[in-house]
Amino acid sequence: MFSFGDRTILVAMAPRSRPTDERFWEKVDKNGTICKGMTTACWEWQGATWSGGQGVFYAGSEKGVCGAHRFLWEQQFGAIPDGKFVCQRCDNPACVRPEHLYLGDQKDAHRKTGRSGLRNSMFGKRHTPATIRKMSLSRTGKLGHRATAWKGGTSSLNRRLRKMLHERVGWYRAVYARDRWLCQACGSKSKIDAHHVRPLSGIIRRLLSGTAFTSDEERLEWLIKQPEIADPNLINGITLCRKCHRDTHLRWGSHTRP
Q: pTM for the complete prediction?
């Protein structure tokens, strides 16, 4: 309040800001849970958090908004070196207890986050007993074609056959050598692929139609001996550079049935 002659003026004064440390510690609960593998309880942040669960703290006009665990580390141990991250040994993202913190690299930070389940969309959610029982019954003993996610095994079989064509038959290298290691569409020598003119997946489906085998290995060995698969005369192969190969698949689709 100020007086000027016969007039009195009231001026609203901004409240004094409280010390940073006081504001920080009022948001910390030192009676947290004891996480697995730890002997002491976590000091859990009770204020605002990032989406990953780490605390958010306004450290003043100079530092601005930062992670609560990072703020505490700098207060206790000094500046954080470039390229280093403050990680929690307890896998509790809200923990700011100094004994639970350590400096790690980016791999450590991602590893801890993945292990604690924070990248899982179901993290923190619970299934009902009925859902748990249903999931257990649907998965027990179901392997191969009986598994819930079984889609016929074509993709896996396709990959295994391609590996055998490369390692046992030498089909890819033979196609490259015949075409003098040049893309037959544009003449490029860089990043070449051996392309199946007729999709290998379509050939596999046609050959397996109406056949039966006692095991996957028996089926695989039978397929690799078929002339259409082994392609000894390289009728079904052509060398293309990566760009031309991609353009070819864009024209007719990667899984178009012949």
A: 0.41
